[in-house]
Amino acid sequence: MANRGEIARRVFATARAMGLRTVAVYSDADADAPYVADADVAVRLPGNTPSETYLDADLVVAAALRAGADCVHPGYGFLSENADFARAVQVAGLVFVGPSVEAIEAMGSKLAAKELMQRAGVPTLPSADATGLVGVELEKAAADVGYPLLVKASFGGGGRGMREVRDPSDLADAVAGAGREAASAFGNGTVFLERLVERPRHVEVQIFGDSHGHTVALFERECSIQRRHQKVVEEAPSPAVDPDLRERLQDAAVAAARAIDYVGAGTVEFLLDDGGDFFFLEVNTRLQVEHPVTEAVTGLDLVRLQFDVAAGRPLPAEALTPTLTGCAIEVRLYAEDPSRNWLPQSGRLEDFHVPADTEFRLPTGPGVRLDSGVASGVEVGVHYDPMLAKVIAWAPDRTSAALALAGALQRARLHGLTTNRDLLVRVLRSEAFLAGETDTGFLDRHGLDLLAAPLVDDEGRRRHAVVAALAGAALRRSAAPALAGLPSGWRNNPTAPHTTVFDAGTVRYSFDRSGITADLDAAPVPLTVLGTDVLRPGRVRLEVEADGLRATYEVHVQGDRSFVDGPDGSTTLVEQPRFPEPTAKVAPGSLTAAMPGTVSRVAVVEGERIDAGQLVLVLEAMKMEHPVVAPAAGVVQALHVQVGAQVETGATLAVVADTEEGNSDAS
């Protein structure tokens, strides 16, 4: 398996069911990843970054040969759509589980693919190659395409190497930034310009071909809800596609596949406007991240079909005449903070549990499937995509699937890292989503101030803080040598309340014969504790009644952090030290790193006067670029990093302040 994480585990699951021996390759950063243990044998790829490891075709092929493999499954991302890699696999005497080298080459460049599709009669959008263009030439190409436009990576996907441009003054920076990001993610920085369709739906068709002349379409998926042009929610079928449109989409997709003699699993992507017209985007010559929703509505194991077709077998009857049953929705669960411009998160995943009926396989009836690349205790690093898992629900109708999926996500235990879980739940339960009103501008239109808000409201957060304080006390009391069963803080006589200081506020509580009295920052939190159980070290379950409603909360205490899970959602609280150590003074105007990463660009020089919002530098982490901009106008007093520098969270990158502040600081 020439890949990592969730897709490696997915492929291994089917391979085991088929009686195939499995081989994993892993970077140093992935040495303890769950997929490595899932394989029969694993081969180390020395290094951490994608370019050192999973993007090194020679290294991956050598690993396959060393392990005695006879075929290579590329998964998605990395080298999965690299024709040179597919060729190297075949030259080494191995079978590439994917389309022919010629088909990959034909679709490898999105520009060349568009020209080919035009000849095949598939509708396309105006576009232009931006390679090597600067100044007037670049401006002319953009004018010919027309604004607004997208800058897109020609040799990649997943939203990486993509920039939206509405103002010609932003064009040059967008082309340069997209090129850098594409080179990092795909090993090729070629980008092109394409007309932007306003508020389209992103609809794609799953195709499959075999070496016996069969080419089929396995219905459509809609992947319109996206952030940074990367899919977040995917479903099959699309709520916007009726039988007539489905037939036209499938006919166009099959025509595209036949134009390149396609064999194996692939996806033809389209943009669908509100008038029912659609336009070719690209052919992904691989399995898609969102393939489980197609598996759910067709009952087909697409990975098994890939292996069968690679072995020269014809597509089975159930694939040649597929049926569409029910509705399936998938969400991508990311370690990221939507409220902070989708800032990716890294660190230890203290607990990971999503209630699901099955892993990697379609439930036998309505239910939830989990495709995960992580487990409790895994360290999420900065070198790769921050996706933790895909959670998929199938039901006879779309609303039932959406609500089942939202419920599973809300009940999940996700401790240690900020995730997009609450946003996903709010999207799935929103009236607009349930009405099928989805397009690529969904998140922008409905606003992150609402969608990214925590599920737990203010009253709930106060209750969670008290519950966390009581759980911490219960854990301390359970270790007491005598009378461990008494509530911590209980007294026969009135006494001063016990105090726990969290980042969310100060909890004060006391017990007496009438029960508990508690407040957060002097605001009363009325509740009754009905039961407290210490489940195991660091884990407490409390049954609480508030406003006549009984509910059960589980608290996981890990060091100074308390993770509270309840029926209203989840909260993380950080207990503050009683005697905080003095912190080092940070110079006024300091710009600090919000995450570990590599400095990929420095856009200013010391002494330069810059405006508020002006780009200072760019950090690269988790295969994405993250701009660092000036919060206010001022002078660049200091630059503490240069291109290529590795920085940790909190590191001072630069100091931007007005001249008077800078001079007074220096004196």
Could you explain how this protein is built, in words?
- There is one protein chain.
- The protein starts with a helix and ends with a helix.
- The chain is 28% helix and 32% strand.
- Mean pLDDT is 92; it is low at 661-667.
- It has 667 residues and is α+β, with helices and mostly antiparallel strands.
- The relative contact order is 0.08.
- The protein is globular, with a radius of gyration of 27 Å.
- The protein has 19 helices and 40 strands.
Task: Note the topology.
Blueprint: H1 5-17, E1 23-27, H2 34-38, E2 41-45, H3 57-67, E3 71-72, H4 83-91, E4 95-96, H5 101-108, H6 110-119, E5 127-129, H7 135-145, E6 149-153, E7 163-165, H8 171-186, E8 191-195, E9 201-209, E10 215-227, E11 230-236, H9 243-259, E12 264-272, E13 278-284, H10 291-298, H11 302-310, H12 317-320, E14 327-334, E15 336-337, E16 343-344, E17 347-348, E18 351-353, E19 358-359, E20 367-372, E21 379-380, E22 387-395, H13 398-411, E23 413-415, H14 421-429, H15 431-434, H16 442-446, H17 448-451, H18 458-478, E24 498-502, E25 505-512, E26 515-520, E27 523-524, E28 528-536, E29 539-546, E30 549-558, E31 561-566, E32 569-574, E33 590-592, E34 597-602, E35 609-610, E36 615-621, E37 624-629, E38 634-639, E39 646-647, E40 652-657, H19 659-666
Parallel strand pairs: 1-2, 3-4, 19-20
Antiparallel strand pairs: 5-8, 6-7, 6-8, 9-10, 9-12, 10-11, 11-14, 12-13, 14-22, 15-16, 17-21, 18-23, 20-22, 24-25, 25-26, 26-27, 28-29, 29-30, 30-31, 31-32, 33-40, 34-36, 34-39, 35-38, 36-37, 38-40
